[in-house]
Specification:
The protein has 188 residues and is α+β, with helices and mostly antiparallel strands. The protein has a domain of 122 residues: Alpha-Beta Plaits (2-Layer Sandwich), CATH 3.30.70.1290. The protein has a three-stranded antiparallel β-sheet with strand order 1-5-4. It has a two-stranded antiparallel sheet with strand order 2-3. Strand 2 and strand 3 form a beta hairpin. Helix 1 packs antiparallel against helix 2. The longest helix has 20 residues. The protein is globular.
């Protein structure tokens, strides 16, 4: 999964010499991410990386089936994500980190996180290993990362490293490629 900061602002530190250096807010995010596993018995954390403006992480969830519909259907009001679901876990994580950051800075007006998150179901061991590798080497790819606000070359059809690694199936955040050819895949 990937969660990004509001407006992709670099709030959690910086990349220097291909290494991520967390600032105070980044350390809050790290501490709360690590706490996620200890306060939720159905969660097992795997590889993760906190970047200047986003967090990539692999979460193993136990005992979670399909969640009920949360989008409005016109017949009932949405009642939020199911307890223990990825949506619920990330909502709580973002809420707690935001409260801690605001308390530390006495700034109640800051918006830390963008709405929602990106997710990808990892289908097999091979894909899991590829995504783990992507996460570990993410700081080294920062200069070409689509989440880097300083990347100027965001041409249509741009594919970052993880899209290429996963062999044309979209990135781990689930964002589709911009269709160019008959097959709906990039031709570059």
């Amino acid at each position: 999964m990937t969660v990004c900061t509001n407006a992709r602002k670099c709030l959690f530190g910086e990349i220097s010499d291909n290494q991520m250096t967390l600032n105070g807010w980044g350390k809050i995010v790290r501490d709360e991410w690590l706490r996620t596993e200890s306060v939720r018995p159905n969660v097992k954390l795997d590889s993760f990386i906190i970047m200047p403006n986003h967090l990539h992480g692999i979460i193993h969830l136990a005992h979670v089936g399909a969640t009920r519909r949360v989008a409005p259907t016109g017949k009932e009001k949405p009642d939020g994500p199911k307890a223990g679901s990825l949506g619920s876990i990330l909502g709580q994580f973002k809420s707690v980190t935001t409260k801690r950051i605001k308390a530390e800075n006495r700034n109640t007006g800051i918006s830390v996180w963008q709405r929602n998150y990106y997710e990808r179901v990892i289908r097999d061991e091979s894909e899991l290993e590829k995504i783990r590798e992507y996460i570990v080497y993410n700081p080294q790819k920062w200069l070409t990362d689509r989440e880097n606000p300083e990347v100027l070359n965001r041409r249509p059809g741009y594919r970052d490293e993880i899209e290429i690694v996963l062999g044309g199936r979209g990135d781990p955040a689930g964002r589709p490629y911009e269709a160019k050819g008959k097959e709906g895949r990039n031709e570059d």
